[in-house]
Every structure is written in C-alpha cells, then in structure tokens.
Amino acid sequence: MRVLGIETSCDETGIAIYCTEQGLLGQALHSQVAMHEQYGGVVPELASRDHIQRITPLVRETLKQSGLAIQEIDGIAWTEGPGLAGALLVGAGTGAALAWALGKPGIGVHHLEGHLLSPLLAPERPPMPFVALLVSGGHTQLLEVESIGHYRLLGETLDDAAGEAFDKSAKLLGLGYPGGPALSRLAAQGRPGKFRLPRPMLNDPGLTFSFSGLKTAVRSRVMAGIPDEATRADLALEIESAITEVLAVKAARAVAQTGLRRLVVAGGVSANRQLRERLAEASRKQGFECWFPPPALCTDNGAMIAFAGALRL
Ligand code: KG4
Ligand code: ZN
To answer: CA–CA separation, 138 vs 134, rounded Å?
Structure first.
C-alpha cells in the first residue's frame, strides 16, 4: 500500500509517500523559518497562506521523485491535530479533496503519533515495547508504547513544553527563531558552572514535568544584565543543561519504573546534542537501549504522517 502523507500543522509543509512494501519512496519539505524569523515566532495567518501556495507543487515533486502517477496512490493521510487551525485546514482540505477525487481512503493522523512512530522509519527499527520520550515545541510526554495504537501516558508537562522552554529562553537571550537550535549553538561556547538555574520537579519522584518556572528564572537573570557574549553563552549552556538534565533523569526513571529496557526519543528537541549525550550516558549506566531517530526525522516532516497513516489504514 502506497500512502501520501501531508503535514501542515505549523511552519513546515511536509509531503511524503510511504509504501508498506518498499518504505519511503519520496519526500519533500518546505520550511517557513525564513518567513517567520523577522517576527520572532510563527505568525499563524502567514503560515496558512504559505501552506496553500506550497502544498500542490510539493505533492507534484514528491510524486515525481517516487516515479508514481497520483492514481497509483492507495490512500491519503494528513495531520489532523494538534496544531494551528488554519494551517491544519490546508493539509486536511487538500488531503480530503485528493482522497475524494481519487476514490481512495483518507485518514487524519494525530501529529504526536507521527512523531512517536518516526523512529520506526529509520533503517534500524527499535522493537516494541518501549518507553518514548516525546519532546517537541508543543509537547513533553513520557509514554509506554506497547504496540502500534497502544500507548499509555506515563507523565507530561504541567505547563510549558521542553521545546517551548528552549524557544522562550532563546527569545529572552535575544536569539533568533527557532530558538532551540540557536540556543544550543550558543551553549556550545559556554563555560559550565557559571550560573545555576533550577531543575524544576527533578526531585519529585513522579514523571511530571514543569518548565514555566525555569523561564521566569531565565528572565530574572537576563534582567539583572548580561555584560558580554561569553556570559550569554554561559547562561545558554546552563539553560540547556537544566532542561536536558530534567528530561534525561525522568526518562531514565520511566524506563526503571516500567521495567522496560528500551527508550526511544522523538520530536524536535530530540535533535539536541546535550540531551543525546545525557541519555546515552544514562542508558550505559542503567543498562537500557536508547534509540534516536535520524535528525531529519526529529522535526516535523511528511514521512512520519505517511508512515503513521499507512499503518492505520
Ligand atoms: O517536533 P517539532 O519540529 O515541532 C513541534 O511539533 O513542535 O519541534 C520543534 C521544537 C522547537 O521548540 C525547537 O526549538 C526544538 O524543537 N528544537 C530543538 C533543537 N532542534 C529543534 N531544541 C533544542 N535543541 C535542538 N537542537
Ligand atoms: Zn511536531
């Protein structure tokens, strides 16, 4: 079965074709980062309008890459939510129209299920069951993944998501959008131990996260004054350390509590280098496997939607 996947939940138009026999046949992505950059964040109306302009050419490009005619597609999947309403409507409208016109099945896919299953698109697939750490711009969740469609929520954030904590802190530091990668680049030049920020809920025995207090602490630090670029890098490193330490400790705790021996990390923040290092170390110490999707699959893309859609269809 060949499924065309459409992802338009935020600021990326992602299209892909996944075949249940041959794997990924083609994919195309347009990022709106350059367009939103000047506003310091995503402008929803601009996002929707750009998706409208990009989506059809990207579908054509993906078909061309795959060497397929549109009639050879067996089903259409689109991101149903969560995301920006107007942006989602473009993908859902296009997907539903294509499915109707072709007389093929169409299905809306949960964006987080797309992220959750994206590691299974890698050449080496993690076997189930596993614990998943899902860390994106909008969500921070720990889940027990028993099989496709069978997920149990172990813990999530009470307020800001990990990616949001990166983005908001980056904005306070005067860094561009998206903030996570920019903050991480600056942090690479930071000196450890120059600042000490709180690790929210680290010592709480549960699997719940909270990142809004961290953002407030960063704001107070920034308002107290940052004399030079080196100090800014020091603070960036401490922010990255605070977020990734909490994520790594709680993820390792979830593995221990479930008795499972495998952790899979997904979502945009899983591209973070320090998080990867911390989790790799925890997995060595605690004796579990740690799987990361290839970086291109970490952030939003059409492949994860085509894949999740194909499995559901
Ligand atoms: O999964 P994603 O592309 O979109 C959502 O579904 O939200 O995740 C985007 C988030 C943003 O908050 C971005 O700053 C963060 O992932 N991110 C990173 C890195 N790359 C992306 N955060 C920290 N370090 C990175 N290298
Ligand atoms: Zn996402």
So the answer is: 10
State the Cα–Cα distance between residues 46 and 114, nearest whole angstrom.
24
Residue type, 83: G
Q: Is the CB of 271 under 6 A from ligand 1?
A: yes
Which residues contact residue 83 at a Cβ distance below 8 angstroms, ignoring those fewer than 6 apart? 8, 9, 10, 111
Q: What is the position in ligand 1's atom list of the atom closest to the CA of 167?
A: 14
pLDDT digits (tens, 9 = 90+) for 55-100: 999 999 999 999 999 999 999 999 999 999 999 999 999 999 999 9
Nearest CA, atom 24, ligand 1:
272
**Separation of alpha carbons 189 and 68, rounded Å:** 47
How far apart CA 149 and CA 66 sit, in angstroms, is 28
pTM of the model: 0.91
Residue 209 DSSP code: B
What is the mean predicted confidence (pLDDT) over 100-118? 96
Q: Are 43 and 36 in contact (CB under 8 A)?
A: yes
Sign of the four-CA dihedral 60, 62, 67, 70: negative
Query: Residue 233 — very low, low, confident or very high, per pLDDT cuts 50/70/90?
Result: very high
What are the strands of the beta sheet with 130-135, ordered from one edge?
Answer: 150-156, 140-147, 130-135, 262-266, 289-291
State whether the beta carbon of 107 lies less than 6 angstroms from ligand 1: no
